[in-house]
């Protein structure tokens, strides 16, 4: 009997894409968490890497908008039979120029979840795993771009947890990864990617 592969869609921003802030390029498949996740889950799973730098929840709705020519979420869902969707967004919404409250950012997340549920109205809903916000600590020159974002992180974490509870979804609190951020205080270091892959592997196995 042919083994049914379980597709895991990882939909996020630059930390899902695997940005190495030291080089400005992408971590390789031996480093970024999505690739490590694929290796750790084994042959029964296939990880679809759908990260895009600068992707947001509110200003560029990820279900019905586009960003830099990269496909948004809906085509991924239409193209693949997905068993689990991992959503890792919210950091870019903290930028000063957007001037968004934690509640407003969380409402963008809730809208995304609602859109996903509507898409699967006549089919089985995949498992949905929500990442909480990384507790970033932006360093110069990014500090001004994310001015006062630290004040929003704890409330945003609470608001994201509320969305997860309201929709009965699995929530992954990323606040412990603060010590594994790279030198810019926003992106994960290689050690952070490794640790995150281990966390998500355990979560997916538990579903």
UniProtKB/TrEMBL annotation:
Its domain of life reads Bacteria
Q: Which GO terms describe its molecular function?
A: hydrolase activity, acting on ester bonds
Give UniProt keywords alphabetically: Hydrolase
Q: Which Gene3D superfamilies match?
A: SGNH hydrolase
**Family annotation (Pfam families):** Lipase_GDSL_2 (PF13472)
Q: Which parts of the sequence belong to the SGNH hydrolase-type esterase domain?
A: 10-195
Protein name stated in the entry: Hydrolase
Which species expresses this protein natively?
A: Pseudoalteromonas espejiana
